[in-house]
């Protein structure tokens, strides 16, 4: 009886201490890697000496080994930490009640009392007072009663928690900052653009989408978004759980700055992230951007004429900011309504770089590539003559870029072509071909592979 009262008192003390924790000033940094850094200012009440403390209100997907505690000189020492995640449910209660006396109320068998021997295979096995073994199939109409369960020293918890063994020299309230990493937090950028009638200008806005599946609510948190590719050390197995719209111009919601080899976007003000919530916050409002539309054919897929939109990420083009990786969705007015015309993903793009989007394939421009002649020269060289035919069924003339890819592991010499290439790289030649309205144009080239 004495041990029971002591255990019950200890459990109650831990629960009271857990609920007595004061929290404020939560800071949350979310990465692109399904990982978040949480910093919380907390206050706990402790008695002098060594004691057990249950630190509640933590994410289900916390990384226990990442916990960092910052406090003053007269603080406390955490001697031992356990991650308690064995949450209560009916099966776990029964498994921990093996060899204990239970009452089973069944609509078919009545009220049965016995020792629980097994809770598996869809049946309960009970040994009654007369020594008879009863095997009773489980069903949703049964009611199970456990005697004296509240007196057990081993209890379940209803939410994940950190169980600390704490030592302190001073009784009273202790302030500390708790930092930890958790899985289940991620964010991405979503760009929305509206093309003008001539496809020369774009009104571009950006939203960030934050997904919280960590198992915790973050109330009135200071939110930071980290853009960049973090390296994560490979880890051995562990049992620890580890509406788009185009907006009018408004002040920026986020402040951007470079940090280490990444970029941080800090939200002005605070926000609340609920568990299992997807939240969208505007990164920057509608911005006018000059763009170029291009048609492109490559030797890797010569039957498709890709439609591309390009723009420069410069201050002169009303941007000039680090653009985080995300999806760009483009719309255009058909004269009556806004229609979706395509989307593409961009990688992290620094300022003063060019953004290139592939948004679809041209319907009215047809391409074909023909190998006219292939001739072996000597033992290893090969001379090839290639012909491209571009047919334009549009009512206006178009310019089509042609990329002829060549092997990078061989020396290549362009012997002749109908027009001078606009770009020569180790792995391709790039040409421009003008095609009139309802016309066909050809491009012939001959090159030597050594």
List keywords for this structure.
5% helix; 4 domains; SH3 type barrels; eight-stranded mixed β-sheet; 450 residues; disordered N terminus; mainly beta; 2 helices; 56% strand; six-stranded mixed β-sheet
Overall radius of gyration:
34 Å
The count of DSSP E runs of length 2 or more, i.e. the number of strands, is 31
Q: How large is the count of helical segments?
A: 2
Low-confidence regions: 1-23, 235-252
What composes the largest sheet?
8 strands, mixed
Helix coverage percent: under 10%
**Straight-line distance between termini:** 92 Å
What is the topology?
Layout: H1 2-19, E1 22-30, E2 35-46, E3 49-55, E4 68-71, E5 76-84, H2 90-95, E6 101-106, E7 110-120, E8 123-127, E9 133-137, E10 143-146, E11 161-168, E12 172-183, E13 185-195, E14 201-212, E15 218-227, E16 254-259, E17 262-267, E18 271-273, E19 277-290, E20 292-298, E21 306-312, E22 326-333, E23 338-346, E24 354-361, E25 365-377, E26 381-392, E27 398-405, E28 412-417, E29 423-424, E30 428-435, E31 439-449
Parallel strand pairs: 1-15, 13-22, 20-27
Antiparallel strand pairs: 1-2, 2-12, 3-11, 4-12, 5-11, 6-7, 6-10, 7-8, 8-9, 13-14, 14-19, 15-17, 15-18, 16-17, 20-21, 21-24, 22-23, 25-26, 26-31, 27-30, 28-31, 29-30
Question: Could you characterize what this model shows?
Answer:
This protein has 450 residues and is mainly beta. It has 4 domains: 2-22 and 39-85 and 159-180, no CATH class; 90-151, SH3 type barrels (Roll); 184-292 and 317-353, no CATH class; 365-449, Sandwich (Immunoglobulin-like). Helix content is 5%, strand content 56%. Strand 6 and strand 7 form a beta hairpin. The longest helix has 18 residues, at 2-19. It is elongated. The protein starts with a helix and ends with a strand. Residues 1-23 and 235-252 have low confidence and may be disordered.
């Amino acid at each position: 009886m004495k041990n029971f009262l002591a255990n019950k008192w200890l459990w109650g003390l831990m629960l009271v201490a857990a609920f007595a924790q004061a929290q404020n000033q939560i800071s949350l940094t979310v990465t692109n890697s399904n990982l978040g850094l949480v910093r919380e200012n907390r206050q706990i009440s402790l008695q002098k000496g060594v004691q057990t403390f249950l630190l509640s209100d933590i994410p289900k997907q916390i990384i226990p080994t990442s916990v960092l505690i910052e406090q003053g000189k007269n603080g406390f020492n955490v001697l031992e930490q356990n991650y308690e995640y064995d949450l209560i449910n009916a099966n776990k209660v029964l498994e921990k009640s093996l060899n204990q006396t239970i009452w089973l109320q069944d609509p078919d068998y009545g009220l049965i009392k016995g020792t629980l021997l097994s809770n598996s295979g869809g049946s309960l096995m009970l040994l009654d007072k007369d020594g008879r073994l009863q095997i009773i199939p489980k069903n949703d109409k049964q009611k199970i009663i456990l005697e004296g369960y509240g007196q057990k020293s081993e209890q379940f918890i209803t939410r994940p928690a950190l169980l600390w063994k704490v030592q302190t020299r001073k009784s009273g309230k202790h302030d500390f900052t708790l930092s930890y990493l958790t899985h289940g937090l991620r964010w991405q950028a979503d760009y929305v653009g509206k093309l003008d009638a001539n496809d020369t200008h774009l009104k571009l806005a950006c939203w960030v989408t934050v997904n919280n599946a960590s198992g915790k609510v973050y109330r009135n948190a200071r939110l930071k978004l980290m853009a960049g590719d973090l390296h994560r050390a490979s880890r051995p197995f562990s049992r620890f759980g580890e509406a788009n719209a185009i907006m009018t111009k408004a002040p920026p919601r986020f402040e951007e700055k470079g940090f280490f080899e990444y970029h941080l976007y800090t939200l002005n003000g605070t926000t609340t992230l609920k568990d299992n919530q997807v939240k969208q916050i505007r990164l920057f409002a509608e911005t006018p951007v000059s763009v170029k539309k291009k048609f492109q054919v490559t030797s890797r897929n010569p039957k498709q004429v890709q439609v591309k939109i390009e723009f420069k990420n410069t201050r002169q083009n009303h941007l000039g900011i680090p653009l985080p990786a995300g999806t760009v969705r483009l719309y255009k007015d058909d004269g009556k309504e806004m229609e979706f015309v395509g989307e593409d993903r961009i990688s992290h793009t620094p300022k003063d770089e060019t953004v290139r989007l592939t948004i679809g394939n041209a319907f009215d421009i047809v391409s074909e590539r023909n190998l006219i002649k292939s001739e072996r020269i000597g033992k290893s060289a090969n001379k090839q003559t290639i012909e491209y035919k571009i047919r334009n069924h549009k009512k206006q003339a178009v310019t089509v870029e042609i990329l002829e890819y060549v092997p990078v592991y061989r020396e290549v010499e362009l012997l002749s072509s109908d027009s001078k290439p606009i770009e020569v790289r180790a792995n391709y030649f790039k040409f421009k071909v003008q095609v009139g309205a309802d016309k066909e144009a050809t491009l012939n080239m001959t090159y030597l592979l050594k």
